[in-house]
UniProtKB/TrEMBL annotation:
InterPro entries: AB_hydrolase_1, AB_hydrolase_fold, Sec-Metab_Biosynth_Hydrolase
Domain AB hydrolase-1: 3-165
Protein known as: AB hydrolase-1 domain-containing protein
UniProt superkingdom: Eukaryota
Database matches in Pfam families: Abhydrolase_6
Amino acid sequence: MTPGPVVLVGHSFGGLAITNAGNADNVAALVYISAFAPDDNQSIAELGANFAPLPSAKAFIFDAQGRFWLSHDDFLKYFAPDVPKAQANLMAAVQGPADGARFEWRSGPAAWKKKPSYFLVSEHDQIISPELEAWEAKNIKAVKTVSVPGASHAALVSHPDIVANLIIDAAKAVAAKS
Ligand SMILES: *[C@@H]1O[C@H](CO)[C@@H](O)[C@H](O)[C@H]1NC(C)=O
């Protein structure tokens, strides 16, 4: 089977991943969901530096190894406030720690400069600033930006239809060209 063109989708830090993996020849489009979209050689710390820190920044708990997470209550409050309680409880329980060193990781050449990109802005995101997301969508010259009122950082759980439709739009545009 010949592998067809690929649409990469990244949520949150996944945006850094697709910004780099997207340089592969078979990647035809990028979809950023409430994500970071760094520039060439830019870290996430630098990308966010011009935007006011959110209240959640003070809520993250760090251990001695630099791993971080939110308390159960703060996860519900900041990460998934628009997700049904039972599901948000489950997400909080399995969140796992993230590696704080990632804020300093530098992107390689940014694939969004060469590949058509799509962006979903979560207007009530309390993990990544909605202002940063809206700015990124313009900065990467997104061919389509969907801005979702009331959506939290967990938009892909709370608004799966809107997220899926944006991915389908990207896939249809790729299919029309191939
Ligand atoms: C990446 O940015 C850092 C900090 O500005 C700089 O020291 C480094 O030389 C840059 N690397 C490249 C490959 O441009």
